[in-house]
């Protein structure tokens, strides 16, 4: 019985870590797109939109959050952090390109 508890608990942690990573990457990609749009670099806009759209299919096709913690803490928190970091990365890339 204790072993089953550990297996379930470990599985829950793996799912939570996976969701945190997915939301962070989704936020980074979201932060990159508008930054490249503001710079006007068409190739960077095109590439960032392709990457964003392809990753969006991963986010939309995953299991939905069933708890309030996931809906109100995990998704928006990691998305916001990722978006902020994505914005900074895109500024650095824009400086590097020009």
Description:
With 98 residues, this protein is mostly helical. The protein has one domain (2-97). Helix content is 89%, strand content 0%. It has three helices and no strands. The protein has helices at residues 2-39, 42-60, 68-97. Helix 1 packs antiparallel against helix 2 (42-60) and helix 1 packs parallel to helix 3. The longest helix is centred in the first third of the chain and has 38 residues, at 2-39. It is elongated, with a radius of gyration of 17 Å. The chain starts with a helix and ends with a helix. 17% of the residues are buried. The mean pLDDT is 76.
Gist of the model:
With about 100 residues, the protein is an all-alpha fold. The protein has three helices and no strands.
Amino- and carboxy-terminal Cα gap: 61 Å
Radius of gyration: 17 Å
Largest sheet: none
- Main structural class: mainly alpha
Count of separate DSSP helical elements: 3
Helix content: over 70%
């Amino acid at each position: 019985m204790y072993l089953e508890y550990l297996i379930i608990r470990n599985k829950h942690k793996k799912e939570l870590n996976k969701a945190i990573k997915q939301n962070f990457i989704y936020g980074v990609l979201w932060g990159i797109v508008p930054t490249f749009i503001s710079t006007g670099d068409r190739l960077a806009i095109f590439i960032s939109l392709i990457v964003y759209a392809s990753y969006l299919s991963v986010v939309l096709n995953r299991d939905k959050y069933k708890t309030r913690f996931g809906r109100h803490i995990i998704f928006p928190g990691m998305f916001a952090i990722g978006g902020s970091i994505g914005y900074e990365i895109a500024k650095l890339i824009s400086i590097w390109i020009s």
